[in-house]
Amino acid sequence: MALQGKKLINNPDDVVTEFIEGLVETYQGLQYLDGFPEIKVVLRADAVGGAYDKVAVISGGGSGHEPAHAGFVGPGMLTAAVSGDVFASPPVDSILAAIRAVTGTMGCLLIIKNYTGDRLNFGLAAEQAKSEGYKIEMVIVGDDCALPPPRGIAGRRGLAGTILVHKVAGAAADAGLSLADVAAEAKHASEAVGTMGVALSVCTLPGQVTSDRLGPEQIELGLGIHGEPGAAVVELQTVDVVVEHVLKQILSQETQYLPITRGSNAVLLINGLGATPVMELMIAARKAVPELQLEYGIAVDRVYTGTFMTSLDMAGLSITIMRSDENILQRLDAPTKAPAWPVGSEGNRPPAKFPVPVPPSPSMKDDEILSERQELSKQGCMLEAAIEAAAKELIDLKDNLNDWDSKVGDGDCGTTMYRGATAILEDMKTRYHLNDAAGTVNEIGSTIRKVMGGTSGILG
Amino acid sequence: MALQGKKLINNPDDVVTEFIEGLVETYQGLQYLDGFPEIKVVLRADAVGGAYDKVAVISGGGSGHEPAHAGFVGPGMLTAAVSGDVFASPPVDSILAAIRAVTGTMGCLLIIKNYTGDRLNFGLAAEQAKSEGYKIEMVIVGDDCALPPPRGIAGRRGLAGTILVHKVAGAAADAGLSLADVAAEAKHASEAVGTMGVALSVCTLPGQVTSDRLGPEQIELGLGIHGEPGAAVVELQTVDVVVEHVLKQILSQETQYLPITRGSNAVLLINGLGATPVMELMIAARKAVPELQLEYGIAVDRVYTGTFMTSLDMAGLSITIMRSDENILQRLDAPTKAPAWPVGSEGNRPPAKFPVPVPPSPSMKDDEILSERQELSKQGCMLEAAIEAAAKELIDLKDNLNDWDSKVGDGDCGTTMYRGATAILEDMKTRYHLNDAAGTVNEIGSTIRKVMGGTSGILG
């Protein structure tokens, strides 16, 4: 029997409404419209009731992309978010309900990802709202860079770049701009942004079985955010190679998707697709920044690394690049209370490194290097051989030790021992007074404390 | 051949230093000490150089728990974080380097998770720092509630509750309190917090093979954050059942781990273990809040839902409860620039729901219910039978349609059709004028628009 994907959920039909209830329990500034299960709208608690005096910015679409879109509702970003069922566009009535709930005299901007269902439903809701007397503008985001043109009638898909458009529009609205000006800034931003993703696993819909489309050593390039198959399946690579490839696609001179050339400024967004650890996202950011700066001559003004626009429980990431200018940076840096927008990425960066402070006294022996190697005594030679044999044995045992340790602990004993043994072999060449056996034992202890960490290190 | 866990990394030995480089690229207020690979210390760029005029708060431990601990460095929280290798305590020298880098005349509080390696390494570093003239205090956090006492010589493990202790101590330090007072607040917080976790998958160490310890329909209760086996393995349950069980363990009257009784106030932290989608975390939060309030009589003051203290790529979550009082709430609500601390959970909650706005005119027919059913004509009966047959056919085809759709799209076509067909059968009983075939077709369209969403809905 094929197994359902393992998820911490209740009834698969209730995942979206239950998500919204939990979101609103967590964030005090959010409310939802009392229209479950059809109407699934999250809004700013301080912007309801028709008295909102700024341009309302509304986005949304199918669910399964959490924290998008509801996690980006807050002062300075979205005024409301409309959720459909998982991977299904929200119906017209719920979009209308959101518009009616938060739109005041300044009007409302709808930011829509470029999918047929979203364009139709949001478009019809906009027409209906206009007929009710609301001022409405729409901006469509299609930031996908995975497929070369022509891309069929549907055009480029809307991906994580949409989040940056939300931020620009939300900050512009918060600054008190008119609907036309907010829409113009959002459109400008949407034309300056490109995204491409890479997946390690296929997402599983709630209550459905997990696909075996992707082999255990394969990754998918240029995927959509609804589990659509990607543009290509390749063997798993190091993240550095993956990042290089994705940046090359986004910045391709052939497709010319992005108005970015050598000398441009840009911001970078590294987005986890749902099941990607923060560690891996940061490792990708670490590669992308110098790659953009050194290989493409692009100045990276800001880096946003985190989980923004997901595809349920998919492992993998997408990279988004947006050309930046003074005004866009000001909008991106503007404060917001939207819970899922990252804190601490704004402003300019000081140097990344700071020198290690020197100890107050030169008493520590760790860094001493023997200026000249003494002739080894016979005893010294034996000690050297013994240490070398023991260290090499530990190095050979690495995998076995890890294996045994994983039965009772965290499975890193072999790796830790390997690190210690390697450092001992290294330091022995330059730092150990091998003719003095007792001194050498102390020196080994110092090496171990320096590199091994964990409990073994300190007991050494 | 056993396969390595799929990860977006480069050399497994470099994951920690590369994570730190990416983190510092992302957050402008952070720096790291230039001592790679041995010294892995992230610090506030504005607190270095020995001139820091508040109590420095330092934490750390093995890596693999990202964003902890480095993601919690920032004004109002940690002053520096010391990282060891994956799941290995940092060596004494790197802890000492962190202390020397950020400690001024007010002194330094070390917050340590209760593991043997951390206690030894941080403890020795503290002694060494004191001998260099620094004022140092230590607080140990052991918030694990999974195992009943006695728990062996090592005692209760430090888990995600440590993050709340960081926040309390960081805010107290930021308020200008003395080292003794900051340490007292941290100790008070550490004694009021309890945590228990549940895992859907076992974590995989970088470069190692994935464990098959957990079957495809099993979950593990009461796990550690280093891949240690949990207290029990059980069949996968709904998240509501899992949350009930975990809360019962944490609040057990038998272990009396937490000083919380009926009538107490508390804060709740729902923590993803690395690969858990935001959707699932929020669904857990949705259950935990009313469960605490209604079943245990505990007032929930704040909810923090997100990814704070992980176990590499483990799927699952932990729940933390901390007894709250005026002072703790003030510390938790105090502003911080630490990137991984959640924004928007502070302050008191307004009502969660807001009524759906009524349309401006009563022209919409959606909500009309037939006051009295007309006798059906022969044609009306035939139409009713035809609609019923078609709808039931769609309902039966749900799984097949999902399956076919997953080959070309997002695999939800069957579910969407099922939802529409079910609503049609429902509305037909009360809303369709079946004697009027053309009218009925319009009414079906209205039903579909209301519930189906997606592209099918709007085309309907």
TrEMBL record, chains A, B:
Residues 381-460 form the DhaL domain. One of its GO terms (molecular function) is ATP binding. One of its GO terms (biological process) is glycerol metabolic process. InterPro entries: DhaK_dom, DhaL_dom, DhaL_dom_sf, Dihydroxyacetone_Kinase. Coiled coil: none annotated. Belongs to the dihydroxyacetone kinase (DAK) family. This is Dihydroxyacetone kinase. It comes from Triticum aestivum (Wheat).
